[in-house]
Amino acid sequence: MKNQQKTLITLLADIKNPKAMEEFLQSFLSKAELAQLSKRLEVIGRLKSGESYEFIQKQLGVSSATISGLSRIQDTNIIKEALKLISIDKKATKIASSIRRYVPFL
Predict the structure, then answer these.
(1) CA angle at residue 56 from 25 to 58, to 5 degrees?
(2) Is residue 89 part of a domain?
C-alpha cells in the first residue's frame, strides 16, 4: 500500500467522532466526491434490499457500470460489516428519536 494511502486510512480510522468525521470529509472532499461516495453506499444498500439495477439507476442517477461494480463486492465481509453498522446506526437513531418524543429534555 502506498504511504499516502496508509496515512489517509489511518487518519480516517482514528477519527471516532461522527461530527468531526463529517467536518473533515466536507473540508477535504469536494461536494461531488462526497456525494459520489454516499451514493455508492446507498447503491450497495439498495442492492442488498433486492432493488433492481434499473430502479436504482433511475432513483439515484448512477450508471449500470457503477451498480454492476458494486454488485460484485456486496458480499465481501467488509461490505457486509459496513452494512451491518449502517443498519445498527439507523435503528439507534430511530429509537433515540422515539425516546425524545416522550422525554423532550434529552
Answers:
(1) 105
(2) no
- Does residue 47 contact residue 6 with C-beta atoms inside 8 Å? no
Q: In angstroms, what CA-CA distances link 9 with 1, 6, 14, 34, 63?
A: 10, 5, 9, 16, 27
Which one, of 31, 32, 39, lies nearest residue 67 by Cα?
A: 39
As for how many domains the chain has, the answer is: 1
Distance CA 25, CA 6 (A): 17
In a domain, 102, yes or no: no
pTM for the whole structure: 0.78
pLDDT digits (tens, 9 = 90+) for 78-106: 999 999 999 998 888 889 888 888 876 66
Position 9 in a domain: yes
Pairwise CA distance, residues 25 & 36, whole Å: 12
Phi, psi of 67 (to 5 degrees): -65, -45
